[in-house]
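Lab notebook, bench 4. We co-purified these components, and the gel suggests they stay together. Before we commit to crystallization screens, I want a quick structural picture of the whole thing.
Request: model the full complex, all chains together.
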Amino acid sequence: MVVEALIKIVIVLLTVLTAVSYLVLLERWISAWLQDRIGPNRTGPLGLFQPLADVLKLLLKEDIEPSQSEKWIHWLAPVISITVAFSVLAIIPFGSAIILSGKSYSLAIASNVNIGVLYIIALTSVGVYGITLAGWSSGSKYSLLGGLRSSAQMISYELTLGLGLVSVVMLCGTLDLGGIIQSQIAGGWNIIRAPLGFMLFLISSFAETNRQPFDLPEAEPELVGGYHTEYSSMKFALFFLAEYANMITASAVMSVLFLGGWHVPFLNTLGMDPSLLAVLGILAFGLKIFAFIFFFMWVRWSIPRFRYDQLMNLGWKVLLPLGIINIVITALEKTYLLH
Amino acid sequence: MFDIIFYIFGAITVGGALVTAFARNIVYAAFSLLFTFFGIAGLYIMANADFLAVTQLLVYVGGILILLIFGVMLTSRIGTVDIRVGTGSRWVAGIMALGLFAILCAAFFGTAATHTEKSADGKSQVVTSWATHATRPWSGSKWNQDATTEALKPKYGAPDEVKSNEGSSGTSVEIGTLFLTDYLLPFEVISVLILVSLLGATMIARKEPTKEEEAIAESVSV
Amino acid sequence: MSSLSNYLIVSAILFMIGASGVMFRKNVIVIFMCVELMLNAVNLTLIAFSQFMGDQSGQILVFFVMTVAAAEAAVGLAIVISVYRNKETVEIDKLNLLKG
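Here is the predicted assembly.
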């Protein structure tokens, strides 16, 4: 049992860490493509060794400690960020259970967490601390402003995130991610059953991951680098890693909640081998995650940053009422349409 | 195993609380409160209150502590030294705190706890036990659960009853049912309280804008 | 020792620390934190007894305590901020206007 969990943890960590380093490269390629440039292509064939070079550079850089900083918290903040980003992955079901030599292995590190959805919201709310404390402990005004902005922004959009989730929970009648996927297999994907909830969740995911157009905590032109202005070397790399890991987890969560996770419609009617089906399911899940990540990057290089008051207005005056309306709509839908 | 994990969480909780209450640097006070809340969430999980543990993280860590940190950020500079009150009242306060602890312990361990349970023939009966010598199975101890249930089987004669408490179904269903049946009125009242406090907080903290500021705000907003 | 008494001891210690913090400290925000500690100690007791009795009503009560704590933190901090705006301090022994 413990060994099984450990093996799963190692596999997931290695996959995600590799994915993260190549996502950085992918983002640079996509940005180059959107801006009609060539992008990194010098290091190795097609520039494929670029992530290695980046990591090496970051490792060898001097780790600068600002004289006005709170040493401990300054050190701990990136660790919190990265821990939270990876912790969500613990409950994501990456595929349907695989049956090997008569024994069933579930493809989530911790399967059947009956409060899975709440766990995700709780961890998201802990994620605020990484950035807020980073901004605060650096002892620099740019960092502090970035930290303040991030906590206000993330708290505001957490509400919308939660309201978007409520519609999913109402439709599926469970807080367990595996159960949510099963319910979608039976009754259709949630993106069809709760399109407004999906929109709300998607928009607030952008805010929660601090990605453009909501990257105000680090807004370069105004705040130099925001909360990570004073970070360098590996500590900066951890923040960088956390941003991309957050993107992966957000994409994975959205795939599970709204796109049916590893489910591919009509595939089970073809009468294929169950193990082949399971592998195809994992691939489909990966593809869905990739689609979301591509969307994240596409938006980043296409849409300008929001102004701070616009961000708050959008969150509190538009998205929050929409979220509450969405709950009513979902309730009506569940009562009259789905019966 | 259960004991070790309990002591780890307990130590995190108490240690964090000590730093919170006595650290001179308010930054550390706020930060160690985070650890206390985490430790308490861990203790909740060990008492089978998984739903509440997550709610604890959500409400305290995600809400209240963020608010507190906001307060710290807005009202003090980094490295503010918080000097304690004079020695005279310090002694009094210390003695009062210790006295409180003694009274609490006396209350906890001097009071008999009663609980209803079904005996073998299906009848409910009230059982009295002392907290110090509690014989009821502690189903929170997932680690030595089997040992406890085994040891207590003869005494209870109703192993099904004991087992019903330890399944993986969690507490969310029961809590939800209770909220919408027995505790519906308090639930509604508390939501009104939340609404009122939300409005109140906004009203109190709002800065009255001057005429010029209003004009600027109007010209800026699109 | 049973698990219940373990929980009760932790809770009593937590309550003591919270109470002494309220008495020792001057900064209003730290006092707030210590009040939260005391509330948490009470919650811990409720959870331990709810588990001990096998009755979920204790957990419901914890919910209500959490809600009230959240409301209290929101209103309290609003007051602290507005006091700070007027007096530029949050030390309680400097907020003695009523003393004359």
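The two ends of chain A are 41 Å apart (CA to CA). Worth comparing against the SEC data before the next meeting. Chain A has a mean pLDDT of 82.
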